[in-house]
Structure formats: structure tokens, C-alpha cells
Design the sequence.
């Protein structure tokens, strides 16, 4: 039985081949260089190496303005044109018109209806559970669909036992900023854990949003650290991906690929497909709204 692993990277587009703007060229990124012979850019957005394919994903969805996280992520995880429903790109939290479709049509719920097992691998700290339990409504798309579908959120206990990953991959922010008793791990260990979790479930989702923070010029002092952790993590995942897992890495809009601006960009979102069904994903995904069905069709 084949498995699907979806890694959602917030705010990563395919941009210009310009070292003064694009950190994939100025800082380098071994995942692209070692596995594909270089990073993708607007004139050469599709790169292939064996059963690994980098490709662009339309994030504008026919709506003017800069794509945003709330509507973009709702489009990814529901397959509906959330910016069209909202009448605009909206974020970072879900628009009121997106909340209904996230509750009713999210990918986790659809898989559960088919009798398949979904898993959301990110661990959330107690602070977040306290926030949700206080009745506050501003919850990001992935957490909202995990809560609504019954898939649920992983906790510190899951993180400590290797049954979840931290948002920053290596747990350094949990250990150093939240002062929680968790061990800091290597990106390669996190990649191995995510592969093991993926083998136990039909669809496993991991979300990494620090790329969007970097694109907004936040966490500047941690840029190099976050960049190299992500790179090593993805390089390990793609290099060690077992036969039975099909991997899709996708983003919701451009941002970090153009550091000359603090805002999101109009560039296409990054897509990477790998594994036995990579070609199928590449052929079926042109825009954010194609992602949900392309994954459902793997099963
Ligand atoms: Zn976003």
C-alpha cells in the first residue's frame, strides 16, 4: 500500500536567478544543487532528476493582488478556489468564507471517509492548546483542519517520544525559547522520524512556516541557522525516501525567494514531487486547487 507524505513550506516561490534577491542562489541550497544540479528559477522552473521533479504551482488563482496564506492554504487543503470565494487573497488566518470549506472539505476528512489514516506531524506547545481552549478563533488553516477532522494535534509528549516534529525541525526553539524539556536533534534525525511516521499512516502532513518569516525579514539573526536546518532536512528526506512513499513538497505563495521585498511575491509557488508517483503529481498539479485531488488520487 502506497503512502503519501506532504510537506507544506510557507512562502517559498520560484523566483529570479539573481543573487542580490534570491537566497537559493546567494546562500546556496544543497537540496537543489546536489539532487538537481541547481536551483529552479523563472526561466527554468521545471527540473528533473530520476523520479524527483521540481515544478511551479500557480498561487494567484485568477485573483488580483499578492497571494496570502489564509486563502492559499485553504485552496491547497480543500481544493476550492478560496481567494475567489473571499473575493480577494486573505491572510495569514483563514477568511470567514474559508472556515466553512476547511471544516467540511479538508483533505483529512476526505481520507477518513475513504477509511484511510491521516496524520499531522507537527507538535504544538501547551501555550497553543491554552489559546484554543480559551475560545479564541484565530487558528491557522492546518491546525483548524486537524482539529475539525478529528486528526488532532501532537503534543510535547509526542515530540519527546519521536512521534512528532517541532515546527523548527530540530527542537531548538522549544528547548531554548520555550524552555521545554525536549532534546535538540539533527535535521537528519528529524527526517528519519518523519519517514517512519509516514510509513505508519496513509497521508502524513508536516508544515514548515519559518520560511515565510524569513521572507518577511523576521528572525534575521537566525536566517543562516533556519536555512541550513531546512536544507539538510529536505536533502536527507529526498535522499532516503523509501519506495513506498510518494512525497509532495508544496508552498502557498512566493516570499523568501525574493529578499529585496519584505512582502509576498507574485512568483509561482514551489512544488517538488518525488517517489514512484512523482510524474502523476507533476502532471496533475498546475495550481494550488489541484493539490488535494492529486493526493487523493494516489490512493
Ligand atoms: Zn503563506
Sequence:
Amino acid at each position: 500500500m502506497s503512502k503519501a507524505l506532504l510537506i507544506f513550506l510557507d512562502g517559498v516561490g520560484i523566483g529570479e536567478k539573481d543573487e542580490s534577491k534570491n537566497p537559493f542562489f546567494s546562500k546556496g541550497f544543497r537540496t537543489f544543487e546536489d539532487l538537481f544540479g541547481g536551483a529552479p528559477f523563472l526561466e527554468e522552473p521545471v527540473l528533473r532528476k530520476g523520479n524527483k521533479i521540481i515544478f511551479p504551482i500557480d498561487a494567484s488563482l485568477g485573483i488580483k493582488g499578492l497571494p496570502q496564506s489564509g486563502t492559499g492554504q485553504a485552496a491547497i487543503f480543500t481544493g476550492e478556489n478560496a481567494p475567489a470565494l473571499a473575493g480577494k487573497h486573505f491572510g495569514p488566518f483563514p477568511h470567514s468564507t474559508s472556515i466553512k470549506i476547511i471544516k467540511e472539505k479538508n483533505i483529512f476528512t476526505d481520507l477518513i471517509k475513504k477509511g484511510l489514516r491521516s496524520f499531522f506531524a507537527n507538535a504544538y506547545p501547551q501555550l497553543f492548546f491554552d489559546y484554543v481552549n480559551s475560545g479564541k478563533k484565530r487558528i491557522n488553516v492546518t491546525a483548524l483542519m486537524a482539529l475539525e477532522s478529528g486528526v488532532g494535534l501532537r503534543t510535547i509528549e509526542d515530540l519527546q517520544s519521536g512521534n512528532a516534529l517541532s515546527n523548527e525541525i530540530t527542537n531548538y526553539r522549544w528547548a531554548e525559547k520555550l524552555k521545554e524539556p525536549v532534546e535538540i536533534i539533527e535535521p537528519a534525525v528529524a527526517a528519519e522520524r518523519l519517514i517512519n511516521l509516514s510509513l505508519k499512516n496513509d497521508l502524513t502532513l508536516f508544515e514548515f512556516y519559518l520560511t515565510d518569516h524569513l521572507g518577511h525579514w523576521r528572525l534575521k539573526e537566525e536566517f543562516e541557522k533556519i536555512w541550513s536546518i531546512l536544507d539538510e532536512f529536505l536533502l536527507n528526506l529526498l535522499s532516503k525516501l523509501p519506495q513506498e512513499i510518494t512525497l509532495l513538497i508544496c508552498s502557498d505563495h512566493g516570499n523568501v525567494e525574493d529578499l529585496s521585498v519584505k512582502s509576498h511575491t507574485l512568483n509561482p509557488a514551489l512544488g517538488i514531487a518525488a517517489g514512484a508517483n512523482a510524474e502523476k503529481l507533476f502532471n496533475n498539479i498546475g495550481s494550488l486547487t489541484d493539490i488535494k485531488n492529486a493526493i487523493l488520487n494516489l490512493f
The longest strand covers residues 3-9. The two ends are 8 Å apart (CA to CA).
